[in-house]
């Protein structure tokens, strides 16, 4: 193996899931910072776009100019940092998915047929509803739509799902693994396949799931 091959291989595996998690965590922190800055401006009765002078170019008498100017400057910087970080996350995800997709299975399993376990649904009762589906998310790519009613999600159905936390743990354990699910849309059951993964938005699925009366972004 040449030095260039070693460099190329190192570059192809330079991004890890932990790197993506760290970047997403950093973006969440920026979101909190942005919300804090916006809250400070709101307490002064202004936004980022509110003029700080009147029609005659005099400072507004009811606004503490010296207090809000640095906050607006920091808010602009934080928003720009978030945009740059989102672009970085998208590139990291692309590299991570490319490296996963390009990997070859071991030679002794190349021709093996791996069968997915069949899940026998024992209930047609709806146990959760899909809320907002983010564009370009794993849920969106799988064909889920807002308003779809879940009657099966992997091994879970209304007859054996005791707590939504069971679903959340199952999703965490199924990153980059397809999950079979059945939804009712209109009056028709529709079977879909959804693969949880890290992407540029929130959660591993990019949709809200509404069990009973509470919604969770997963």
From TrEMBL:
The lineage of its organism: Eukaryota, Metazoa, Ecdysozoa, Nematoda, Chromadorea. Belongs to the proteasome subunit p27 family. Pfam families: Nas2_N. Residues 25-98 form the Nas2 N-terminal domain. InterPro entries: Nas2_N, PDZ_sf, PSMD9. This is Nas2 N-terminal domain-containing protein. It comes from Gnathostoma spinigerum. Keywords: Chaperone.
């Amino acid at each position: 193996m040449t030095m260039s091959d070693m460099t190329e291989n190192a570059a192809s595996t330079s991004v890890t899931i932990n790197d993506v998690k760290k970047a997403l965590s950093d973006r969440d922190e920026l979101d909190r910072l942005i919300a804090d800055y916006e809250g400070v401006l709101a307490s002064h009765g202004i936004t980022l776009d509110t003029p700080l002078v009147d029609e005659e170019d005099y400072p507004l008498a009811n606004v503490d100019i010296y207090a809000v100017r640095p906050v607006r400057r920091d808010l602009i910087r934080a928003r720009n940092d978030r945009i740059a970080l989102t672009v970085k996350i998208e590139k990291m995800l692309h590299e991570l998915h490319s490296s996963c997709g390009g990997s070859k299975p071991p030679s002794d399993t190349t021709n093996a047929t791996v069968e997915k376990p069949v899940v026998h649904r024992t209930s047609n009762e709806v146990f959760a509803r899909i809320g907002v589906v983010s564009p370009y998310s794993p849920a969106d790519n799988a064909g889920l739509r807002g308003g779809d009613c879940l009657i099966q999600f992997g091994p879970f159905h209304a007859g054996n799902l005791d707590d939504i936390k069971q679903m959340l743990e199952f999703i965490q354990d199924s990153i980059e693994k397809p999950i079979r699910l059945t939804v009712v849309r209109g009056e028709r059951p529709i079977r879909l396949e959804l693969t949880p993964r890290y992407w540029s938005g929130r959660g591993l699925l990019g949709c809200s799931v509404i069990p009973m009366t509470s919604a969770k972004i997963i």
